[in-house]
From TrEMBL:
Transmembrane annotation, as ranges: 81-101
Descriptive protein name: Transferrin receptor protein 1
Gene Ontology BP term (one): embryonic hemopoiesis
GO CC annotation: external side of plasma membrane; melanosome
InterPro entries given in the database record: PA_dom_sf (IPR046450), PA_domain (IPR003137), Peptidase_M28 (IPR007484), Peptidase_M28B (IPR039373), TFR-like_dimer_dom (IPR007365), TFR-like_dimer_dom_sf (IPR036757)
Chain ranges of the Peptidase M28 domain: 390-593
Stored CDD domains: M28_TfR
PTM summary: Stearoylated.
Domain of life: Eukaryota
Length: 773
């Protein structure tokens, strides 16, 4: 009985009494979720017992308190041995269970660590199923972190008198932007490119001589002009748009070899020169008319005339140092001379022109020019190689870090470039700091990543941005779902304009209503149902957002505060200074820039916060339907007026069926969105990928990026676009010699299949495709 009592006492002490050993769990959790450890420590209050089976009489005292656990030598009887074996076996089983459970917890810790409570303080964890922060709280946090007062200091720091691409000043500014990104604890990197640009002559000069008069030597220039000297008769061509040259053609004016005098505005320098070259002109002179711009008569103009984007000597591929290709040139390089002139020189020429009178709607001077109005143009620009740096920082997402929105700004400028680049660069780095602070200290956890990019060589045709796109196109087209451009976002006080992919229109309109604009009248304007007519504008080819959209198929946007919906006077000049921008904005630059930054920030945060991307795929259906309506009507006109040019069997039914397929696929996607489970991360990702593919699939697969870099059939440039097809039908209707029926039929078929292919991709799985076409 004494032995039994002792065994019971021992077992009791193991569970309830003074334990022989104890287990202490020390849970150490890595808050970032990379490594979570469960540490188990075993310690004893006594030394280990030595139990000997019948090997003499021994007493063992254990522990610092001197209390014995086994003080009697057990007698060697079968019954006693049985009790002892049972006790040891029981202790072994208990120890095994403790070790097993402890080890299991240790293995599961990295997965379950977020659910472990330490001292009853539960730690919230983003599972990916839903964002922890309400959207209203996100916007309030951005307003708190991003303010005009903080932005004003950055504007002062980044303002420089000169930072032309590839210069020491540009490199110094790049290092400061990089350091800002590092200070915000972002992962940073740089992209180095070796590019070819054309600069004004270092030793000589360019010159203009009108009617053997005084020689003018402009300091301004147009990069990528043909170099040489030509002589021809001046012809005034208004803005140099297609319609302007059509007016001159209707007047039966000979344009061969003429030197076209064209005013700045409406379209890019490159488009003006390309249009003039198609008319067989020998040169183009560009000036700023006082009806469009309020500038000094001696103000010099700077720009480029590459009908494309990026380094024209590496067309379609990046200008990395290790790139080894035979010499190549972009098809967008001009074939004729191009030069800017001051308003003073333009007035001298225009006042002496003879010839026919200008059309009544062409404001300005009265005469177009005569064959005797001879002018000599000499361009001696030099081709140079420069090293440029793009600078990047990223805030990584918590659910889909490999999907990202890109926010970018041009860093270089011809001169001070305060509106052109300083404001955008300042907003870029300050927005990066604010959103980083939201993540580090505000509890905000974006589902997707945000990439901040500072580009160089923007003034030469968005070279930095385009070379990056060309270098990583295959990756970016699958992962970058939007680009937000911060160039020129503040140029005036009273107007506001947005140019964007139709996919983003609904998101932009909703965001404008969320962001309280400083001017109450503007806020009322945004709240009305006139968004498309009063706010939206076409995206210009010289915008950095254009290659993202038309070359890479990434939904993109540009926006700006403008002076009464007109032009800013000082872009492309040496007078884009702090003082002149303050004069244009009543010294409200920090306030306007802060509002513009919050607007861009709201767009970006919405895109990385929501489960599903807020892209309206039905907007493109309306755009395509509008083109199809025009094409259908013009095909009927051609078949009626020029029946010999097109086959009688030609029908637009296939095109109509294609847009029908797109409409059904878009509606099916909307149904999938409405019926989706937002807790299902994989389903959300699949739906988002279908949305992201829409813009990319509007890129024509049937044209070369070298010959037609802007392959988008709706917003791109070239004969493959629906806009070009519409114009081609107009030429066929009038039996224009430039029209080519065979080319039209080929482009028409390829455009139709591009739309059908986009519809197929939008539909999703191969078994969901519409085979009606």
């Amino acid at each position: 009985e004494a032995v039994m009592e002792q065994a019971r006492s021992t077992i009791s002490k193991i569970f309830n009494g003074e334990p022989h050993t104890y287990t202490r769990f020390n849970l150490t959790q890595n808050m970032e979720g990379d490594t979570s450890q469960v540490e188990m420590k075993l310690s004893t209050d006594a030394d280990e017992e030595a139990v000997e089976n019948g090997m003499g009489d021994h007493r063992h005292h254990h522990g610092t308190n001197g209390r014995p656990y086994m003080v009697q030598k057990m007698q060697r009887t079968p019954r006693n041995l049985c009790y002892m074996v049972c006790g040891v076996l029981l202790i072994f089983i208990i120890g095994f269970l403790i070790g097993y459970l402890t080890n299991k917890k240790k293995e599961q810790a990295p997965v379950c660590a977020s659910s472990i409570s330490i001292e009853n303080n539960d730690i919230p964890h983003e599972t990916g199923a839903a964002p922890l922060m309400d959207w209203d709280d996100v916007t309030k946090l951005l307003t708190e972190k991003f303010s005009a007062a903080k932005l004003e200091k950055v504007l002062s720091e980044f303002a420089q008198g000169s930072h032309r691409a590839g210069s020491l000043e540009d490199e110094s500014l790049a290092n400061r932007v990089l350091q800002r990104f590092k200070d915000s604890s972002m992962k940073t990197w740089t992209d180095e490119h070796f590019i070819k640009v054309q600069d004004p002559p270092a030793a000589g000069y360019n010159k203009i001589v009108f009617k053997n008069g005084t020689e003018d030597r402009p300091r301004g220039f147009l990069s990528y002009s043909v170099v040489g000297s030509v002589q021809g008769a001046v012809l005034y061509a208004h803005y140099g748009e297609d319609d302007d040259f059509r007016v001159l053609q209707d007047k039966n004016i000979n344009m061969n070899g003429r030197v076209m005098l064209i005013r700045d505005g409406k379209i890019s320098f490159a488009e003006k020169v390309a249009n003039a070259a198609r008319m067989n002109a020998s040169a183009v002179l560009i000036y700023r008319d006082p009806n469009d711009y309020n500038i000094k008569e001696e103000t010099e103009l700077y720009g480029h005339v590459h009908m494309g984007s990026g380094d024209p000597y590496t067309p379609g591929f990046p200008s990395f140092n290790h790139t080894q290709f035979p010499p190549a040139e972009s098809s967008g390089l001009p074939k004729i001379l191009a030069q800017t002139i001051t308003l003073r020189v333009a007035k001298k020429i225009l006042s002496q022109l003879g010839g026919p009178r200008s059309p009544e709607r062409w404001t300005g001077f009265n005469k177009l020019g005569d064959e005797t109005d001879i002018i000599t143009v000499e361009v001696n620009n030099v081709l140079t190689e420069k090293k440029i740096h793009n600078v990047f920082g990223v805030i990584k997402g918590f659910v889909d870090p490999d999907r990202y929105v890109v926010i970018g700004a041009q860093r270089d400028a011809w001169g001070p470039g305060y509106a052109a680049s300083t404001v955008g660069t300042s907003v870029l780095v300050e927005l990066a700091r604010a959103i980083s602070d939201m993540v580090k200290n505000g509890g905000f956890k974006p589902r997707r990543s945000i990439v901040f990019a500072s580009w160089s060589a923007g003034e030469y045709g968005n070279i930095g941005a385009t070379e990056w796109l060309e270098g990583y196109l295959s990756s970016l087209s699958m992962k970058a779902f939007s680009y937000i451009n911060l160039d020129g976002i503040v140029t005036g006080l009273n107007g506001f304009k947005v140019a964007a992919s139709p996919l983003m229109h609904t998101l932009i309109e909703n965001t404008l209503k969320e962001v309280k604009i400083r001017d109450a009248s503007l806020y009322k304007q945004f709240a009305k149902d006139n968004f498309e007519s009063n706010i939206l504008e076409p995206m210009r080819m010289d915008s950095a957002a254009y290659p993202f959209l038309a070359f890479s198929g990434i939904p993109s946007m540009s926006f700006r505060f403008s002076p009464d919906n007109s032009n800013y006077n000082h872009f492309g000049t040496m007078e884009d200074t702090v003082a002149n921008l303050n004069a244009a904005t009543s010294s409200q630059v920090p306030q306007l820039a802060a509002t513009a930054g919050r607007f861009a920030g709201h767009i970006a945060l919405r895109l990385v916060h929501d489960h599903l991307l807020q892209m309206d795929v039905m907007k493109y259906y309306k755009v395509v339907r509008s083109y199809v309506y025009k094409i259908n009507g013009r095909v009927k006109d051609v078949l009626q007026m020029q029946p010999q040019l097109l086959p009688k069997s030609l029908t637009v039914q296939w095109l109509i069926s294609a847009i029908g397929s797109y409409s059904r696929a878009a509606q099916s996607l909307q149904n999938d969105i409405q019926n989706s489970d937002l807790e299902d991360i994989e389903m959300c990702r699949l739906i988002n990928d279908r949305i992201m593919a829409v813009e990319r699939n509007f890129l024509s697969h049937y044209v070369s990026p070298r010959q037609s870099p802007f392959r988008h059939i709706l917003v791109g440039s070239g004969p493959h676009t629906l806009k070009a097809l519409t114009k081609h039908l107009e030429s066929l209707k009038t039996n224009n010699p430039e029209a080519n029926a065979e080319l039209f039929l080929n482009e028409f078929a390829l455009a139709t299949w591009t739309i059908q292919g986009c519809a197929n991709s939008l539909a999703g799985d191969i078994w969901s495709l519409d085979n009606e076409i």
